Amino acid sequence: MEKESRLIEIFYRSLYRIRRVEEEIVAVYPTDKIKSPVHLSIGQEFVSVGVCEALRPSDAVFGTYRGHALYLAKGGDLRKMIAELYGKQTGCAKGKGGSMHLADAAHGVMGTSAIVGTTIPVSVGYAYALKLKRADSVAVCFFGDGAVDEGNFHESLNFAALKNTPVLFVCENNFYAIHSHHLTRHHSDNLCERARAYGMPAVRIEGGDVFKVYDVARDHIERMRRGESGPVFLEVITCRWKEHVGPGEDFHLGYREEQEVACWIKGDQVPRVRGMLDEQICRIIENEVEQEISKAFRFAEESRFPEAAELYKDLYKE
Amino acid sequence: MERTLSYSEALREALEQEMAADPTVVLFGLGVDDPKAILGTTKGLLERFGQERVFDTPLAEDGMTGAAIGMALAGLRPVHVHIRMDFLLLAMNQIINMAAKMHYMFGGDLYAPLVIRSMIGKSWGQGPQHSQSIYPLFMNVPGLKIVAPTTPYDAKGCMVQAIRDNNPVLYIEHRHLYYQKGYVPDHLYTVPFGKARVLNPGDDITLVGVSQMAVECLRAARHLEEIGIKAEVIDPVSLYPLDIETISASAVRTGHLIIVDNSWMTCGAGSEILAVLAERGLLKKIDVRRMGFAHTACPTTPTLEAHFYPDAGKIAVSAHDMLSPGKRWSPAGELHREEVEFKGPF
Q1: ipTM exceeding 0.95?
Q2: Measured between CA atoms, how close is A84 to chain B, in angstroms?
Q3: With 80 as the cut, is the pLDDT of residue B334 above it?
Q4: Interface residue A169 vs chain B (CB under 8 A)
């Protein structure tokens, strides 16, 4: 029971931290200090948190331009992330990637991409290498329901199944590719069936329960580590609260009903998990996180912009 | 007696020796393990290194390029083979959006050492979609290295260098080069990128040929020799980085320069070289011409195809015309391929 409570604390810290970081981004955004488009994860954090808590530092994750939650949940350096959004030299990409291109190799964050679906085959190749090295690590690729439209998705699932690579595909289905609903792009609501057709187990998780995501992910990941399972596809139903890109809401555009989001706000995992903990513990966690966030933003503010000489650096690896 | 191998044998030897020396090297692509073994260049490698390191792939050029990037991120050194350069067009997304950006976009935190082998087709009715040579598209993309070795010696040394390089390297082969023979040492060695090779010294005119066009330039030089014209033939070997200095020095010395692209000329290697020379103010002293594919799709029938490609005869005529304007001349007869075997050592 004690372990259970410890786990809940870890989950709460991660959920609260990601939510508050992005709320700070929303607050700062109008000042134009953030020199990067931002695709916020608010509302979808539970997917990254649930999966990443089942991972080890040596496991690798790959993500998308909506990657703040993944980067932070996997252990990416918060200060470097905020500095990157500010376009500073101390950013995780030295100001060359911005919000859409986060990486922290030391913590297994192996890159996020602004081209939909492009990290899927990369994760499969990474997993192939893990298998070749007889490692007990896994690769996890996060992408949205838009990515399943891309050829890369299908090429990747086929190859992953063919070679039985230890890769977990996590499709965060928030139903919209920018403003296009999943059913205006797909004949049927059958993403899991498609994955099964390529030769892998597929699980659809509805309801937005972070612990459910964790349990399912952990079971499959542990089987992969033991060499008992190849690739697995998870479809996690979720909801993007904010606009596709930017800090605001987008109900005025009329492509979706406010009600679609309202029910997700009602089931928000941040207050739900908070309610499982003692108030005092929550306050300690929140206080620590708030301090960490203020320090990170201060670090970004105080860091320098890169000098002109930085422009040509790191184009080629020596 | 110096050791002689064909281009394809040199390529195979490079792969075999480097795979034996470095267990992180993996080799894959359509047909690498089939009976034809990419015209022999992958022959015997499956048997020696096993199917985890040498494997056939689904017909998924973009996906497999992405997979190669992932393998590279995880510490492998993948070599991805395409039996036609045209197929790279199916992998442009991963090559340009991902591989070329992998190091820079993450501020140096990640890097992807990978080799993309592709072969330019020609003749025997290859036609519009099996003969394309699209290296100019890639020369426009920062983050890639591009090599197109011509000699068996460079084929081996550049392949070893490409595998050891920590960046994405496009390794461009030409089907007609496969049977060229030349000196190849039996040990592992590298040929550094960014250094052009003078295949034939001369003082009267400089001929620069990319990939198989370097062979056509050599043959043209033989024709020209018969009428007393000494042509210097330069093979750039690597297109990025490009050794402009060797070309520039030779052109300044001879005062005449023909660049023969193994592709369409627009925004090609010739355009790039001439643009740099122009910026340096050198074109006042040098007569220049560009040659390359006719600006149309490559036709299948040999009668039209003959007009599509530059060849030794056309290059020789052009060179003669530059040196002796208004005087008509054309070389007699066709030279045999054997006459331009590559002599070493380099």
Answers
A1: yes
A2: 10
A3: no
A4: no
